[in-house]
Write a structure and sequence with these properties.
The protein contains 13 helices and eleven strands. It is α/β, with parallel strands linked by helices. It has two domains: 240 residues, Type I PLP-dependent aspartate aminotransferase-like (Major domain) (Aspartate Aminotransferase, domain 2, 3-Layer(aba) Sandwich); 118 residues, Aspartate Aminotransferase, domain 1 (Alpha-Beta Complex). The strands form three sheets. Strands 1-7-6-5-4-2-3 form a seven-stranded mixed β-sheet, with helices on both faces. The longest helix is centred in the N-terminal third of the chain and has 22 residues. The radius of gyration is 20 Å and the shape is globular. The model has no long low-confidence stretch (mean pLDDT 96).
């Protein structure tokens, strides 16, 4: 029994009867750039998340870069973020010629350690970029209060958590809709995914929304008049068709992810450290990530059994060559230890219970 990390083929077959007619209709309309599906998806995504504005763009990386630029991040500024995430969270800070400041993570949630964030703030801090890692919402209310106190921006990286409820302390909104700007990705492995790349920014601020649109369209406020250095960052009309269909199923799929995680928890809790849902919002399990001192052995065993698994992330960002010049001597022991022990298991919302039981059996036999 071969088990993939994410069964995109099964998902396509499930949605095929909706996707193919809608794609054909969009193709026949021939409005490939800025067409009606992009506009409709922006409105639907904003309403879903609880935000006034949603601005689509070409990728999650672009969403982060556009957000930083819209917030005025530039050379000399510092931006606090996590070392335990995909590189785009911090590489986009470098693209703005600013300095990423990495602080350690909480050992259970894997999200930013809020005490260390507080300690890292300096007069040069212009923004904090928390990541809702693996689908576990960050405790945003205290972070927002901290940002307001120090006059800096809160930019959510919600690439792994779209659809996660943030809880009562965050006005019942969903991830990405509480900070000054929220950013997400529609890469094919995400909870809400396209058939290629795509991204989105969310904001309640009219001025920031306007600036995001200008930056994403070659820095232009009026056609063929260019006011600032911008980018060509657009969501494709055909990807918007896919996203509109999948958005209607997102809550259903996230509920199934939680059910899968609950079954994994029950089957594995006595042999590995299972993911921790801290109660701040509702985890949507973009990844189901366990911890084990025998991680490498376990990864080899699962692979030989035809079961996909992956290490997210094997090298924390402060240990990457890209950031060596500014962080060569930095020690963040929790992130470093987590990177040595973490292993993500299949978590497709179409994963069957018998497949989960098979995965658990292989893990138990390997470790016992």
């Amino acid at each position: 029994m071969n088990i993939p990390m994410l069964d995109l083929k099964a998902e396509y077959e499930l949605l095929r009867a909706e996707i193919e007619p809608a794609m054909l209709q969009a193709l026949a309309a021939c409005q490939y750039i800025g067409g009606p599906n992009v506009k409709a998806f922006e409105a639907e995504a904003a309403a879903y998340a609880g935000s006034r504005h949603a601005i689509a763009c070409a990728s999650g990386t672009d969403a982060l870069l556009l957000a930083l630029r819209a917030c005025g991040i530039e050379a000399g500024d510092e931006v606090i973020t996590t070392p335990f995430t995909f590189v785009a969270t911090a590489s986009t800070i470098l693209m703005c010629k600013a300095t990423p400041v990495f602080v350690d993570i909480d050992p259970r949630s894997f999200n930013l350690d809020l005490d260390q964030v507080t300690a890292a703030i300096t007069p040069r801090t212009r923004a904090i970029v928390p990541v809702h890692l693996f689908g576990q919402p960050v405790q945003l209310a205290p972070l927002r209060a901290l940002c307001e106190k120090h006059g800096c921006k809160l930019i959510e990286d919600a690439a792994q958590s779209f659809g996660a409820d943030l809880g009562a302390r965050c006005a019942g909104r969903k991830s990405g809709a509480y900070g000054d700007i929220g950013c997400t990705s529609f890469y094919p492995s995400k909870n809400l995914s396209a058939f290629g790349d795509g991204g989105l920014t969310l904001t309640d601020d009219d001025a920031l929304a306007a600036e995001l649109r200008v930056l994403a369209s070659h820095g232009s406020r009026q056609r063929y008049h260019h006011h600032v250095l911008g980018y060509n960052s657009r969501l494709d009309e055909l990807q918007a068709v896919i996203l509109r269909i999948k958005l209607k199923r997102l809550d259903e799929f996230n509920t199934r992810r939680r059910a899968i995680a609950s079954l994994y928890d029950r089957l594995l809790a006595d042999v590995v450290e299972t993911p921790f849902a801290d109660g701040h919002g509702r985890h949507v399990y973009h990844q189901y990530t366990i911890l084990s001192d025998r991680r490498d052995e376990l990864q080899k065993t699962l692979t030989e059994a035809g079961i996909a698994c992956a290490v997210y992330y094997p090298v924390p960002l402060h240990r990457q060559e890209l950031f060596a010049a500014s962080h060569g001597d930095v020690r963040l022991p929790v992130a470093e230890r987590t990177a040595q022990r973490c292993l993500s298991l299949p978590i497709s919302p179409l994963l069957r219970d018998e497949q989960i039981e098979r995965i658990a059996t292989v893990i138990r036999e390997a470790l016992q």
